[in-house]
Description:
The structure holds two protein chains of two kinds.
Chain A: E1 11-14, H1 18-29, E2 34-37, E3 49-50, H2 52-63, E4 83-87, E5 95-102, H3 143-152, H4 169-180, H5 191-199, H6 201-208, H7 217-222, E6 229-230, E7 236-237, H8 241-249, E8 257-259, E9 262-267, E10 270-273, H9 278-283, H10 289-303, H11 320-326, H12 331-342, H13 351-364, E11 373-376, H14 382-393, E12 397-399, E13 404-410, E14 416-421, E15 426-428, E16 431-435, H15 441-444, E17 450-459, E18 473-477, E19 487-492, E20 504-511, H16 516-527, E21 529-530, E22 545-556, E23 572-575, H17 585-598, H18 629-650
Chain B: E1 3-12, H1 19-28, E2 43-50, E3 53-60, E4 81-87, H2 91-107, E5 113-119, H3 131-141, E6 144-147, H4 156-166
Parallel strand pairs in B: 1-3, 1-4, 4-5, 5-6
Antiparallel strand pairs in B: 2-3
Organism (chain A): Rousettus aegyptiacus (Egyptian fruit bat)
Region (Disordered) (chain A): 153-209, 606-652
Protein name (chain A): Rab proteins geranylgeranyltransferase component A
Amino acid sequence: MADNLPSEFDVVVIGTGLPESIIAAACSRSGQRVLHVDSRSYYGGNWASFSFSGLLSWLKEYQENSDIVNESPAWQEQILENEEAIALSRKDKTIQHVEVFCYASQDLHEDVEEAGALQKNHASLTSANSTEAADSACLPTENESLSTVSCEMPIEQTPSSDPESALEVNDVEETGEKENHCDDKTCVPSTSEEESSENVPTAEDFTEQPKKNRITYSQIIKEGRRFNIDLVSKLLYSRGLLIDLLIKSNVSRYAEFKNITRILAFREGRVEQVPCSRADVFNSKQLTMVEKRMLMKFLTFCMEYEEHPDEYKAYEEITFSEYLKTQKLTPNLQYFVLHSIAMISERASSTIDGLKATKNFLCCLGRYGNTPFLFPLYGQGELPQCFCRMCAVFGGIYCLRHSVQCLVVDKESGKCKAIIDQFGQRIMSKHFLVEDSYFSENTCSHVQYRQISRAVLITDRSVLQTDSDQQISILTVPAEEPGTSAVRVIELCSSTMTCMKGTYLVHLTCTSSETAREDLEPVVQKLFTPYAETEIENEEVEKPRLLWALYFNMRDSSHVSRNSYNDLPSNVYVCSGPDCGLGNDNAVKQAETVFQQICPNEDFCAPPPNPEDIILDGDSLQPGASESSAMSEANSETLEESANLQNSETSE
Amino acid sequence: MMAIRELKVCLLGDTGVGKSSIVCRFVQDHFDHNISPTIGASFMTKTVPCGNELHKFLIWDTAGQERFHSLAPMYYRGSAAAVIVYDITKQDSFHTLKKWVKELKEHGPENIVMAIAGNKCDLSDIREVPLKDAKEYAESIGAIVVETSAKNAINIEELFQGISRKIPPLDPHENGNNGAMKLGKQTTQTSRRCC
């Protein structure tokens, strides 16, 4: 490490998930000196998103159960007599039951790697751990030949339709090992090479043979950097806490968003679009005139249900689904309202829950588009990074690949006073914020966790094809049996910058009952068909084909109360990993609560000054006489704009 | 009225080579010896004419996240150009330049315009990096290169003019931002109409 870390801060934040990153930004904005570290090589922890090769590296880490305890200087001898240590965990135990299935044709003879090279060492520049980064892919030299070869798709090489025998996890590791042969230095592609290899295949393959756009595994690998695969699948409610915070703090300027374009429902084996906005309802072809009136009337009532208690008081004791039956709604409409608009449990949610959820959905409509949801370009994993940038802009110091060995507690005061990092450096601070996966078993011995079941699929077409192939959809598949939970399906198209052209990235999420595959595979089978089964020359298959699938369970600690951890000093704060919910309110609430404890009475993420307003020298914004007309034009434009921004701000 | 094109430019290079000073000179024509590392400025803007377009540069600074090699991938997203800075008086900073280029190729957009700036050329009496080396390297990666002095305002305008010239003209087939939106106070629609 070329540079040493300062040894004193106000707030040390361990973990770069969304809540930690928001807190880091808020503290830094309020003038606290913040050190923000993560033992991983990427931002976001379980909120991260990965390119395809990045995801493979991530998987490999969990499969190998990497127990690489790199020898760090012992911290024990640094603990003084009047001190105690709380050792932190060196191993992440939040991901389990990882299973990978590849259905796309794998051309095993080709040594394919991701063009442009991208590794789990996302942000790494160091040579210190370049051996780890060695699976950094080198540029394939035979790209052109490869893409033509793979289009032929030799049948004998396609995996069988049975997922059990489909090439699993091991193949993935093999790929990783192949990549290891590549020497770092020879990997740097020259510009010209890169351009030719990247531009040739995709565009032409698809335009020339639109019917045979069979995507092979090697294409996925090669176009791997087009993928940004989120570990958590969430959306932003357009009037949710996170959108409000992004706008208030001006962090929104670091990201771009797209509206979810469709709400879908899965009924009687078919996927259909749910009309939810006024325009949708009127334009809907699947609803009769009578249904349209019923639905409009009911939704209008939900918007202001609180003003008409007499209309629902009598039903407060029953479930929302029972209540819906008492309303003038056809079964079709009841289904839409319950599963696609309120998105609540059929068996467990009360009338009030349902009315509240429906109202929330309706209130979010129309702010940015025809559905209540937004999705960040490049994936949800961008958001923690955006808040980290805000923290850094206000002086926060960032250190990935930096682990903390222990917290040092002063016996007398009972407060935490320092950390000891992987280099044995002692760093003093007033407050310590720890993401809960960093705690050791000793600290968590009484904690009970829930689990989230996740699946990530790459498919070749949308679950509901329409004129536009660039739809972003959310679909809720209701629970079939009691005790299981509804499965949320989010389908992303390539213009969200999360998958390569010609593919869709599908995220499935539910509260776990069993392993992720056991929970989610039934839904996957209903909606998709494995790639190989359709090899018979049947171009008009009804279901989208599965090219690749990943299942895993992620620990859900969002409900764990701070008191369940053993012996935490009062100035050690805990952040949980992602929750199972669709929105991000939980993360924002957590962040605000912790921030208020660290900085009582301070504004939470106050907006920074506009860049145009930062005047380093009072005269410098005046166009100087000697400057060219271009310069003065430039400056006046700048001034005018900053004036506009100020106006809009003060008028709020 | 000429069309304004917003172009994101990200700055790369080791801590202390003068990245912020270059922006500061370009945007505000100002130089400060003790510029504090990038506090509070998330990005700075300046508009310059180029042909029949106006290029509005949104110049992103690293905010110090490069110091411990922790730049986030989001930093590179959607950049039209990158300015990679080294210090002509520090051979080391030229070495790491190559690593920054590699990083950029991994995370940056494919057709990003690369510009290499050998800063502190006012200190050429203690020069460690010959201009020839920089030129050879720049040529090998298809980047433009120029030696600059943020302190004496040498070649700073030229650096950005060079970038402007290398930005490809707007592709009429591409509908700009492919429907993505920026959220902000100004864009908030006030209509609360639902259903």
